[in-house]
Amino acid sequence: MIKIVVDAMGGDNGSKSIVKAIRDFHSDNNDVEITVCGNKEELSSLEDICNIIESKSVVPMEAGPLEVMRMKDSSMCMAINYMKENKCDAVVSCGSTGGFLSAATLNLKLIQGVKRAALVSPFPTKVKGKKVVILDIGANNENSPEELVQFALMGRLYSKVVLGVESPKTYLLSNGTEEGKGTPAIKQAHKLLKESKFEGFMGNIEARDSLSGEADVIVCDGFSGNVLLKSTEGTAKMMSSMIKNIFKKNIFTIIGYLHVRKGVKDMSETMDYKSTGGAMLLGVNGVVVKAHGNSDDYAFYHALKVAKKLSINNISKKIEEGLKND
Asked: Which residues contact 162 (CB under 8 A, 6 or more apart)?
């Protein structure tokens, strides 16, 4: 039986949406054992289906690594410690990203051979149903060429195991497609990947083509990846708002919407970030899923779904084996 631990505190929407997500998830996945850390009063409706661990302390969004480690009675630290001590498969939180990643890395430790953990998430592309894996999207501010090469390996394994891509095409995010483009780290990583004949390495890709559907895996340092993530989300929100305003303009545009609403719905579903369930911290022992801070019950449901899928596929073990065979 898969065992998942949930930090129910720290999200923008409070514990109410998380409680609903857990109940919905449990009704569809009664083969998963769920333990929830948080305020018992707010979680009382889950007592019949979950283990509840009391904690009223929340890790602040701005908390640094040392501050987080001192907050041992916080719901976040208790969830991670419970996972480690009880050999659970996964932990899920929509709390402070920095705090969660720091606590998970320090407590669960890196997989043997991993230089740096990377935050990874599948992004939607213009090809309906196809997602591109991008890493790192925020676990690190800068990375060495050797770490980027390792991200390529972890990203390829994630694409194969989680998304079912048989032969992932891997690119480096750069400011040009030419081999000589990019930062010194990107240039050296390109050289290392090319010289090692890395399976499926296709060269550089620019940000404007990242969601074209051409790439299966895109590798970048954490700073660039986080900027790409926030820019993409911002652009998607802006376009959605602009399209809505266009159709609300007058009676004729409203009538026009009736003719194209199926296409608009398809586009919305393709660009819906909530269905991805958040991001995973690849490279640590166990499945660590960081749900969006503003997750509603739908988004957190999918975060739990991702945690189960990654646990069943034993992604951490596959990364460890992949590094040994590389």
From this structure: 122, 309, 310, 313, 315
What DSSP line would sit under 177-237, residue for residue?
SSTT-S-HHHHHHHHHHHHTT-TTEEEEE-GGGTTSS--SEEE--HHHHHHHHHHHHHHHH
Helix (H, G, I), strand (E, B) or coil at 37: strand
Q: pLDDT category, 320, cuts 50, 70, 90?
A: confident
**Are 218 and 171 within 8 A, CB to CB?**
yes
* Residue 239: CB atoms within 10 Å: 12
Q: What pLDDT shows up at residue 263?
A: 56
- Using the predicted structure, report yes or no on whether residue 174 has a pLDDT greater than 80: yes
Helix and strand totals (H; E) in the chain: 10, 11
Q: How far is CA 140 from the centre of its chain?
A: 14
Q: For residue 291, give the nearest of 1, 2, 3, 6 by alpha carbon.
A: 6
Residue 157 tokens read as 């394994």
β-pairing, 287-290 with 279-282? antiparallel
pLDDT grade, residue 173 (50/70/90)?
very high
CB proximity list for 47: less than 8 A, separation 6 or greater: none
Which pTM does this prediction carry? 0.83
118-152 pLDDT, tens digit each: 999 888 888 877 889 999 898 888 899 999 999 99
What would the two tokens of residue 310 be?
Answer: 């990654």
**Tens of pLDDT, residues 62-80:** 777 777 778 888 999 999 9
Which tokens hold the place of 244? Answer: 């809505």
E strands within 8-157? 32-38, 51-54, 90-93, 118-124, 131-135
3-state helix, strand, coil in the chain (%, to 5): 50, 15, 35
